[in-house]
Design a protein that fits this description.
It is built from no helices and 16 strands. With 240 residues, it is mostly beta strands.
C-alpha cells in the first residue's frame, strides 16, 4: 500500500461572502465547502437537486427570532431551507453536498425518513458517551446526525473533552473528518501535525491514525463512506 501523506485543508480562513471548496469526489459524488455569510444575509441552498448537510462553525444564525450558535441542518433534494439569517457577527458554515438523490435519515426524522424542517440545535442531539480506554480518561461523546437508507454513508458529531486521547487505530471504511471547533494534534502513521478549526482531513480505510485534543477540546464532524471514495483521484483544491 502506498504510504499516505498527512494532508489538511489549511485551517479556517474566509473573506466576507466567500465560498471555499475543501474537497470534491466525482466517484460518490460529494463536495465539501466553507461559506461566510455577512451580517443579515439569508442562508440559501447551494442546490435544490442534491442532499445537503450544514454545520454552523462560527458566529450565529437567527432562526425563528432566536439566536443559535450550535446548529445542524439536513436537507433532502427539493426540500425548502428554513428562513435563517446571519447574526451580528456573521456566520461561517461547513456544507456538504451529495449528488445522490438517496434519502437521508436525520435525527428527528419521521417513520418515512423525512428530515426535520426545524433547525437542530446540538444540545438536542442524542449523545452517547464513548467508553473510557484508560484511568482518568478525559472522555468524549458521539451523536449520529444522519445516514442513508443502506447505511453506507454515516455522519456523526464527536464532542472531545480537553486532554482526551484517541489511540492509534484504523477503520474498514474511508473517513473524512472536519474540525468544527477547538483542535489538537493529529497523527497518521508516522506523521503528526496541529489540527484546528476549519481543517478537513481524509483518512483512507486501513490507515493507522490517532488524535489528542488541546486545552479547548475539539468538536469533530466525522463522515464515514462505503464504497470507498478516496481511491479515484479525488480533488482537494485547498490541500497543500
Amino acid at each position: 500500500m502506498t504510504k499516505p501523506d498527512l494532508q489538511l485543508s489549511g485551517g479556517f480562513s474566509l473573506q466576507q461572502s466567500e465560498r471555499k471548496l475543501l474537497f470534491e469526489s466525482t466517484q460518490f459524488p460529494i463536495q465539501c465547502w466553507l461559506e461566510h455569510l455577512p451580517r443579515g444575509s439569508r442562508l440559501e441552498r447551494f442546490s435544490a437537486e442534491q442532499s445537503e448537510e450544514i454545520l454552523l462553525i462560527e458566529g450565529d444564525l437567527d432562526y425563528n427570532h432566536d439566536v443559535h450558535r450550535d446548529i445542524y441542518l439536513c436537507l433532502t433534494p427539493e426540500q425548502s431551507l428554513p428562513a435563517s439569517y446571519a447574526g451580528n457577527a456573521g456566520a461561517a458554515l461547513f456544507r456538504m453536498l451529495f449528488g445522490s438523490a438517496e434519502t437521508n435519515n436525520c435525527q428527528g426524522s419521521d417513520a418515512q425518513g423525512k428530515p426535520p424542517i426545524e433547525v437542530l440545535d446540538f444540545g438536542l442531539l442524542a449523545w452517547n458517551e464513548i467508553p473510557a480506554r484508560r484511568v482518568n480518561d478525559a472522555g468524549a461523546r458521539i451523536a449520529e446526525l444522519s445516514t442513508n437508507a443502506s447505511r453506507t454513508r454515516i455522519t456523526s458529531l464527536m464532542d472531545c473533552r480537553p486532554g482526551w486521547i484517541l489511540h492509534d487505530h484504523d477503520h474498514p471504511s474511508d473517513v473524512l473528518t472536519f474540525c468544527v471547533r477547538g483542535g489538537g494534534i493529529l497523527g497518521i502513521e508516522d506523521q503528526s501535525t496541529a489540527y484546528q478549526s476549519g481543517d478537513l482531513v481524509k483518512i483512507p480505510a486501513g490507515v493507522r491514525h490517532r488524535f489528542e485534543t488541546g486545552g479547548d477540546g475539539a468538536l469533530l464532524a466525522v463522515f464515514v463512506f462505503e464504497p470507498f471514495l478516496l481511491k479515484y483521484g479525488d480533488a482537494c483544491p485547498c490541500i497543500t
